[in-house]
Amino acid sequence: MKNLIVRTLSGIGFLAIMIGALLWCRFSFAVLMLWIMGMMMYEFFRMTMGKSYLFSRLLAITAAYTLFNLTFLFKSYDIPGRMVILSIIPIFIVMIDSLYVKDKTEFGKFANLYTAILYIAVPMSLTNFAVFDSQGNYSGLLLLCFFAIIWGSDVGAYVFGCTLGQRYGKKLFPEISPKKSWIGFWGGLAVAIGVAAGLHFAGLLEMSLVKSLALGVVINISGVYGDLIESQWKRHYSVKDSGRGIPGHGGYLDRFDSALTALPMGIIFVELTGLV
Predict the structure, then answer these.
(1) 47-51, 184-188, 244-248: range with lowest mean pLDDT
(2) Is the torsion defined by CA of 206, 210, 211, 213 positive or negative?
(3) DSSP state, residue 164
(4) From CA 268, how far away is CA 221, in angstroms rounded?
(5) Which of 17, 100, 157, 192 would you label with 217, given CA atoms 20 to 30 Å apart?
(6) What is the mean pLDDT of residues 45-55?
(7) CA gap 49, 51 in Å, rounded
(8) Closest CA to 227 of 265, 195, 205, 259
């Protein structure tokens, strides 16, 4: 009961922070995304690298921040798009730094530095394309709708999975995540579609009903894969939670694993359907 109370209160508090930051202004959005991205990368490095190569990990996080900030400036203040290429410089510095590491007994762990940039930094940087229009005007509403669908999918999968999935039907990926079931998947999909429909009729998701429902499907399926990808990392390293950053919920990577695949796919969907 105590854990449930802590989980509920921390969840409500974090949800309020996210909604407030996304709806307030472009700078609160940027601070929120940078904080979440930095915490996820910290947890990922701790899980995969332990205490090895601390300076190199700091360089990788710096590279991630550079990529996000340059993308932010490109979309928000219309700096030349070619300037985003400058984000490759810190990545080159990470590569050069590897040459000067004296203890190379665990050198294979260096691959996780580049993995984190692709796995975490790139998807988080792409969120800039969801909140800025072609004139650089800011609105966090679409990104908030993406998160609402992701959260609805997670809640639906959890409820249906716990009540029916553990008793009936087959497991989704038993070798990676034994508790996930097909019933939970279909339950999450149904709720995701329902949330997308609700956002459409509320006037928050400014696209046709068909596109809104399709967006719910895209975000749900890609989010499930994101969850499974993180589960595979945790299983490989025998870790239950990526961290303890959110009381009662585990780490930031645990909470935003679905978003790392769902957000880019949602953005791609909106961009492509906008051309039709």
Answers:
(1) 244-248
(2) positive
(3) I
(4) 14
(5) 17
(6) 89
(7) 6
(8) 259
Q: Are 61 and 124 in contact (CB under 8 A)?
A: no
Q: What pTM does this model have?
A: 0.91
Residues 118, 43: Cα–Cα separation, whole Å:
15
Residue with tokens 């005007």: 137
d(CA 99, CA 208): 53
- 273: which 2 tokens? 């359907």
Q: What is the mean pLDDT of residues 48-71?
A: 92
Smallest CA-to-CA distance from 184 within 205, 152, 161, 154 is with 161
CA 34-38-42 angle, to 5 degrees, is: 175
* AA letter at 188: G
CA distance 141 to 262: 16
Scanning the chain, the segments in alpha helix (DSSP H) are: 2-24, 26-49, 54-77, 88-99, 111-116, 122-125, 128-131, 141-160, 182-201, 209-236, 252-256, 259-273
Q: What is the mean pLDDT of residues 178-205?
A: 91
Residue 276 pLDDT > 50: no
* Contact criterion met (CB below 8 Å) for 66 and 34: no
Q: 169: which DSSP letter?
A: S
**One-letter amino acid of 200:** H
Alpha carbons 39 and 57: distance in angstroms, whole number: 12
In contact, 217 and 186? CB cutoff 8 Å: no
